């Protein structure tokens, strides 16, 4: 058995740990670029605390899903402002932007030199600016991954800028930062976390360390996500989901993902839909299709045992079968009002294009079984809803 495992340089987890940010940043730099969501005023107290620590703060707000132009503009701002550190403070979009900005601030070739799928995919040659990540949602796990997901509008697809050097030096996860998420965002980000945990658990690239992370994350998310959705003030549930998201990020960074995220890359580029909602729309149907394909073509696959174990973890039934995982996921998505693909603007006419693009997505490499084009189309058809 051989495997490697990569993680952020340091993880700080716990309620109210965000107050430690000025101290951590001051040890590493004096002029941070702070990448936030569209409303940086939400983090006014933290930004004031950074300034009170004598730091020359430059704020870079990012609205929605980041594109390549957003990353390039942020890198230019970081250089012009003389920033010596990048702090991502926000949801997955802010964290992905922060990672891309840190990379492009020091690697000055055209951005397509480094992008996967639509670019040359060449490795970074210069070390990025020091990078810290403090998530304010519980879902993407971007604080623990080595890639930045960016939208390429002209190609209508999402792709990654990927490098081990994009793992944050510090991942600070304060569950209180996610306590203000409304139910719809709680559901979308939480189902993204659940997707990542399950896909990493059944991945062909899974290993004993990622399995341990996924078991713990699945067990916590299964109980905490419905609770956090029902009552956003349930801090125990918020804490459990923040930890599940972190564990999922660490797992996917090492075990890769699967067909849900293989679909999510082109769907996110073709339609103006948040990543978490896309994952929620697909998760039960991809799971069911994978299990059917494994039963038919590889009945001794260890992935079937992993699906059965995942089913036992989320349902609490020790004798659960793999199919029980798909059933539980479908019921949970309904409970959390997850949208259908049709509600996100996808039509049957889009299926061939999405299938063609998804088949080339890097995330497909981790799927536990190679799905045919007919099976991929069937998943989309089912996910469209009535």
Task: Tell me, rounded to a whole number, the average pLDDT.
Answer: 95
What count of helical segments does DSSP give?
A: 13
Counting DSSP E segments of at least 2 residues, the number of strands comes to: 8
Strand coverage percent: 5-15%
What does this structure look like?
The chain has 386 residues and is of the alpha/beta class. It has 13 helices and eight strands. The chain has helices spanning 21-28, 44-52, 68-80, 92-106, 183-202, 208-230, 235-255, 259-270, 275-297, 302-315, 322-335, 351-358, 373-383; strands at residues 10-13, 32-36, 58-61, 85-90, 131-135, 147-152, 157-162, 170-173. Strands 1-8-5-4-2-3 form a six-stranded parallel beta sheet, with helices on both faces. Strands 6-7 form a two-stranded antiparallel sheet. Strand 2, helix 2 and strand 3 form a beta-alpha-beta unit. The radius of gyration is 20 Å and the shape is globular. The mean pLDDT is 95.
